[in-house]
């Protein structure tokens, strides 16, 4: 925890490498001080087939899934930092966005928690 899943147009990977994008999101999440360093997970899924308002404009959206317990202000600041960092990295991309969703502690489970 947390998981940052990046959806983007395939063309973005011609501008920056997947590792550069992943590292920027990771570094920004780490710098927030909201998470344990070893817990941050970032993945990227490029899309070849999509439409944005019936166009082929480039896009990037990050789905952030984090454990409940952070304030609205903390989540808002994290969103703004990540979008700001990606905008500075990819200023020509017209759509860069993020949403943050909370996991419930009561319903979360991973391999180490069973058996």
Q: What does the model show?
A:
The protein is of the alpha/beta class and 115 residues long. It has one domain: Macrophage Migration Inhibitory Factor (2-Layer Sandwich). It has helices at 18-31, 72-89; strands at residues 3-9, 41-47, 59-67, 95-103. The chain has a four-stranded mixed sheet, with helices on one face. It is globular. The model has no long low-confidence stretch (mean pLDDT 96).
- Uncertain parts: none
User: How would you sum up the major sheet?
Assistant: 4 strands, mixed
What spatial form do the alpha-carbon principal axes imply? globular
Instruction: State the CATH superfamily name.
Output: Macrophage Migration Inhibitory Factor
Output the CATH class name.
Answer: Alpha Beta
Give me the secondary-structure topology.
Elements: E1 3-9, H1 18-31, E2 41-47, E3 59-67, H2 72-89, E4 95-103
Parallel strand pairs: 1-2, 3-4
Antiparallel strand pairs: 1-3
Pfam families: CHMI
Keywords: Isomerase
GO molecular function, one term: 5-carboxymethyl-2-hydroxymuconate delta-isomerase activity
For this entry, give a set of tags:
115 residues, alpha/beta, 4-stranded mixed sheet
């Amino acid at each position: 925890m947390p998981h940052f899943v990046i959806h983007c147009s395939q063309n973005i990977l011609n501008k920056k490498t997947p590792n550069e994008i992943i590292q920027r999101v990771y570094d920004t999440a780490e710098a927030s001080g909201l998470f344990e360093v070893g817990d941050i997970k970032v993945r990227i899924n490029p899309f070849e087939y999509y439409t944005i308002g019936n166009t082929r404009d480039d896009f990037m959206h990050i789905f952030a899934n984090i454990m409940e317990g952070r304030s609205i202000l903390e989540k808002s600041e994290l969103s703004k930092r990540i979008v700001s960092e990606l905008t500075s990295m990819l200023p020509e991309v017209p759509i860069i966005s993020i949403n943050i969703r909370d996991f419930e502690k009561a319903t979360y489970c991973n391999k180490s928690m069973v058996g």
